[in-house]
Amino acid sequence: METLSPSITPCVSLPYSNNSSVHVRSHGLSSLLLRNSRSPANLSLISSSRSSLTRASAVEHSKTSPSIDLSDPNWKTKYEREFEERFSIPHITDVFPDAEAIRSTFCLKMRSPTEDFVGGYPSDEEWHGYINNNDRVLLKVISYSSPTSAGAECIDSDCSWVEQWIHRAGPREKIYFRPEQVKAAIITCGGLCPGLNDVIRHIVITLEIYGVKNIVGIPFGYKGFSDKDLTEMPLSRKVVQNIHLSGGSLLGVSRGGPSVSEIVDSMEERGINMLFVLGGNGTHAGANAIHNECRKRKMKVAVVGVPKTIDNDILHMDKTFGFDTAVEEAQRAINSAYIEAHSAYHGVGIVKLMGRNSGFIAMQASLASGQVDICLIPEVPFNIHGPNGVLKHLKYLIETKGSAVICVAEGAGQNLLEKTNAKDASGNTVLGDFGVHIQQETKKYFKEVSMPVDVKYIDPTYMIRAVRANASDGILCTVLGQNAVHGAFAGYSGITVGIINTHYAYLPIPEVIAYPKSVDPNSRMWHRCLTSTGQPDFI
Ligand SMILES: Nc1ncnc2c1ncn2[C@@H]1O[C@H](COP(=O)(O)OP(=O)(O)O)[C@@H](O)[C@H]1O
Ligand SMILES: O=P(O)(O)OC[C@H]1O[C@](O)(COP(=O)(O)O)[C@@H](O)[C@@H]1O
Ligand SMILES: [Mg+2]
């Protein structure tokens, strides 16, 4: 039976403050709300979180909002209007006001993809499956009654309800590209993630249903645009039919690569006018820059992203594809660590999971397994040594339970390691190996206190990333892939697609990558994780 450590803090204090120095939870409203701290009412985003604002260097919000004066009786209306403006999605008609729209060729009546449009486009005249351009999805669905409510994000001290609407994804009745004039390209960048092949597959299948015949894959990420030895891969339903049965990416992935202008030069040369970009924060920063460069050059191109990251660090979305699968797979590693630890005399199982800045996989896998005693993530500071340190608690667990399991996210405890200052080809900081560090410190500590322990360290990170998507991710990938194509045909560009409050939406890219999403240490989910592990604060 699990025994709780006597050092457990019974409740977590909720630092409510409307002082401008309050740490702002890193959600989408941050830039606007931080500016509010200079407003006459001197109110910033009021949050019960203790995490500080983290910001990706990549992209700032593209559409800045002026400060909201909370003493203005109409501030809510103004806020909602400005929110709508920030989350408006760029459209081809912004640059080409006379762009011709035709009736959609997305037709679910069976038709051979090799058929030519000699007799005109097929259409489902009576079909009521289209999305109206004015359809919206609500971004936030909880009305908090107090800033001290767990996870509360409030704009004013009363936590006034403010509506934040974003664009609903899906097929439109009017499209801005003639299928026979489309050359569509798909690219996968960054690290691997379960589900990449499922998304590629559904982009290709949906493009074919619209009637596109010229579809290519760019090999090995952005590098494929500049490396002369890499040739584009022709794609069709036949090519992609079974690719979802294996993990990885049919097209290959890479970090780093050519400049944005080189990429756009290459797109011009190749005649690409639809680009589907599958990747994380970095890839999306690139996609947005490509979109802007195309606009600057007056190219009628749709650039649409599909967020890919097992780290789940993309803002606003319920989750990104591959995350669910990663959690499921991580749980298997935790179970092995548990079995090893449980079967050994004074066994300690340590599992390292991915998560550069965000501990979502570690948190969710710990919760899912129910076998973790200590979960360490980058968002929550901790000490290893000292009276409240991890090792002291570990000793207590060994004494009371006989074994213990520790789950660490790769980005945890970086302040306790020597900095490498190394960067990968994309400019991401190369992290120190905290898993190895805590393994070594555990062995040292128990030697010092003359207590025998049997430490088993499992690093399943690349095994987790390489698996094929599970059923739930498979469905998510299908919907995201289809919606990416609908967005491009509808004439949107510089957008990405995500699942938000169980609905599918289009968002302007800068809003989802303004900074990496992270675990809120005051969220219900982190509290649930603490309830499950029974771990105390290690501070
Ligand atoms: N700020 C940026 N602007 C343009 N391209 C970027 C930017 N950051 C990263 N990239 C490119 O995006 C690709 C993927 O980035 P990376 O950070 O490795 O993965 P991810 O997209 O999963 O975060 C790389 O080819 C990288 O060169
Ligand atoms: O060894 P690689 O390819 O750099 O990948 C490691 C990184 O991949 C990730 O899982 C996901 O990163 P990306 O979203 O940038 O692909 C990180 O958590 C991890 O640091
Ligand atoms: Mg990234």
From TrEMBL:
Residues 184-486 form the Phosphofructokinase domain. Allosterically activated by AMP. It catalyses: beta-D-fructose 6-phosphate + ATP = beta-D-fructose 1,6-bisphosphate + ADP + H(+). Mg(2+) binds at N281. Its cofactor is Mg(2+). GO terms for molecular function: 6-phosphofructokinase activity; ATP binding; metal ion binding. Pathway: Carbohydrate degradation; glycolysis; D-glyceraldehyde 3-phosphate and glycerone phosphate from D-glucose: step 3/4. SUPFAM superfamilies: Phosphofructokinase (SSF53784). Belongs to the phosphofructokinase type A (PFKA) family. PPi-dependent PFK group II subfamily. Atypical ATP-dependent clade 'X' sub-subfamily. Catalyzes the phosphorylation of D-fructose 6-phosphate to fructose 1,6-bisphosphate by ATP, the first committing step of glycolysis. This is ATP-dependent 6-phosphofructokinase. It comes from Eruca vesicaria subsp. sativa (Garden rocket). The gene is PFK.
